[in-house]
Amino acid sequence: MSDPLNLKQFIRTVENFPIDGIQFRDITSLIETPEAFVKTCAELTKVTKAFGATMIASIESRGFIFAGSIANDLSLPFVLARKPGKLPNETYKKSFELEYGNTSIEIQKNTKISENERVVIVDDLVATGGTAIACCELFTENFNVKNSNICVLGVIDLPDLGGSSLIESQGYAIHTLVSYKD
Ligand code: AMP
């Protein structure tokens, strides 16, 4: 099922944004609808609890909207993976490819992360998977967290771009609520 919670009706599609040829899946319409936002956050919390998470991490910036709610529901530590130069303490950095060029995300070195942590990494959408995998690798490479102890949790999956399969093939768990097949 690609939309078991009937959330698609609340997600606006914007053609040719931010560049020609992209169908932008806009979650602002979902979060502006309280019943849809509440239902989405409740489901994300349920999945996170079922995974046995000990920690939430999230990717700047739309992931933060959902991750804060889950961390609050389950009283879990909430780790920010931010764009370069935003975090005030020393950071670990991971570079990854975007559609055009490169970028990187960072987490702080002084964050308390044990190698037995079970981490749920939250973002609004999984496309090629590059962003989510970079975030996973910040945990596996710097804190020795096992791939199987990390779950990527997204509101939306674009499976034709291959990200969710790639994430799974690397031994991470993945869960998304809405899937758009072309
Ligand atoms: P990727 O690294 O390719 O999986 O891209 C995922 C990131 O890019 C997420 O943080 C999304 O917010 C954003 N993104 C990529 N494609 C889209 C799209 N079609 N609509 C909305 N956001 C997108």
Structure description:
The protein is built from 5 helices and 9 strands. Helix content is 31%, strand content 30%. The protein has a single domain (11-179), classed as Rossmann fold (3-Layer(aba) Sandwich). The chain has a 5-stranded parallel β-sheet, sandwiched between helices. With 182 residues, the chain is α/β, with parallel strands linked by helices. The site of adenosine monophosphate has 17 residues, from strand 2, strand 7 and helix 4.
Explain the layout of strands and helices.
Blueprint: E1 12-15, E2 23-26, H1 28-31, H2 34-51, E3 55-59, H3 62-74, E4 78-81, E5 91-97, E6 102-108, E7 119-126, H4 130-143, E8 150-157, H5 163-169, E9 173-179
Parallel strand pairs: 3-4, 3-7, 7-8, 8-9
Antiparallel strand pairs: 1-2, 5-6
Helix pairs in contact: 2-3
Residues 22-25, 59, 62, 123-132, 163 line the site of adenosine monophosphate.
Instruction: Please give the CATH architecture.
Output: 3-Layer(aba) Sandwich
The main pleated sheet reads as: 5 strands, parallel
CATH top level assignment: Alpha Beta
Q: What structural category do the secondary elements indicate?
A: alpha/beta
